[in-house]
Task: structure prediction
Amino acid sequence: MNSLRRCALPEVPPFESQAAPRRRAGARIAALAGGALAAAAMMLGALSPVAASAFGPPFIGGLHTVSQVGETVPGNGDVNPYGIAVVPRSTGALVRGDILISNFNDSENLQGTGSTIVELSPGGSQTLFAKLKASELPGPCPGGVGLTTALAILPDNFVVVGSLPSENGEAATAKAGCLIVLDPHGHPVKTIAGHMINGPWDMTSASFSGFTDLFVSNVLNETVEETSFGGNIVRVMLDTRSPGPPQVVSEHVIATGFPERTDEAAFVLGPTGLALNQFGTLFVADTDGNRIAAVPLAALRIAPATHGGLTVTSAGGLAQPLGLTLAPNGNILTANGGNGNIVETTPFGFQFPPVDTGAGEGGLFGLTLTPDQHGVYFVNDAENTLDLLH
Result:
């Protein structure tokens, strides 16, 4: 590793992980509902910084150094790394602990035309996991291939990636795209498309008892140069019990009313990063609204939360938040597209001082925890690298 940069924050130990699997029992549903309603009430109340900070020190407060792990440009020259996911177990071409990264641009830097997913080891060695062609997809994908931040690995190591394609790198020619399912060897085996999938920009997943929920942010509903409020979040339930490709069980819109608009530099601004906490609340990086939103009961609701859900926090240290993940202490980590900072926020809206990654404006997108939960992997679009905050 190289390119060391120091981040001036006091060193503090992280909390233990609060992660817990979702269960389908009635008691769990009641707990989810109670926790979500309690969280909603606290988020709507006026919580002072002193009270919020009483939940404990920030996770990123103990992380001071940024190191480059490796380059993300594959042999075909694709650039602009967006999505990121850590491999949980070894199967096929996937090696436990490796990091998958999806590229949004092709070698000519045209947005919405990237077609590759690379696999990097923690030591920086790169292999090509998948190179996708629209003509070889096993199902419909309106517009073809342009891989987004939406990237998830299912329990059986099938990989799901979002496609929001453009004909010429401009948002004016963007099409609805699809979700592409790949086997552990990187071969496409299925697509998920239709009226529920319209510009899949980011995604997170949660698995339980042989099923997996995909939570997908869509950014092409009514999107024009001026801001509209057509951005939404869709829950796609998959049956992952069989050894073959997952089967779609149901699709529901669970949140609506997020601002979205096309942007010459960023291609599109809309709801981006997603993460589900142990209480069933889905946190959303509302990029154009410059806030973090919450959707209670995300795994259970049928009727959508309107008006972009509940506001957890806005402005402050946020600057066009894009990627989003949860820290081991349950706090929310967001990657700022506007200035290259990572911001940690409690579920109740208190922001800790941001950490400057050095990536600069337009440099950050996807981020995720390391397997040992002692650091944060993030893509650096400015340098086309995978970096580590530790």
